[in-house]
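Query form — protein PadR family transcriptional regulator

QUESTION: What is the three-dimensional structure of this chain?
INPUT:
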Amino acid sequence: MRASSQFKKGALEMCVLHFIQKEDRYGYELTQRVNQFIPITEGALYPVLRRLVKESYCIIYAKESPDGPSRKYYQITEKGQEYLALLEHDWDEFVEQVNELRRAD
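ANSWER: The structure tokens for PadR family transcriptional regulator are given below.
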């Protein structure tokens, strides 16, 4: 497995919460949005979404679609907003530390 796959797995929760913080979104839409920046498969996203719902970081609701059956939308919770802030802080700190390490020698 390439290292970039592990990086993606570690950052995917933060990316998903970032996008649903801005606007409620459905699964396929989230995949498309993340793919604009980080290549992922649709299958990679759904386990993350299930985990986020299980941990109460987001909720699901159904909404009618003009293009067919209703869709499951994901909405961030207050707990999810707090978790996202923690993830972003930890991510920024980690990236800074890795960059310092790379500059050290």
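ADDITIONAL NOTE: The domain at 5-104 is CATH 1.10.10.10 (Arc Repressor Mutant, subunit A).
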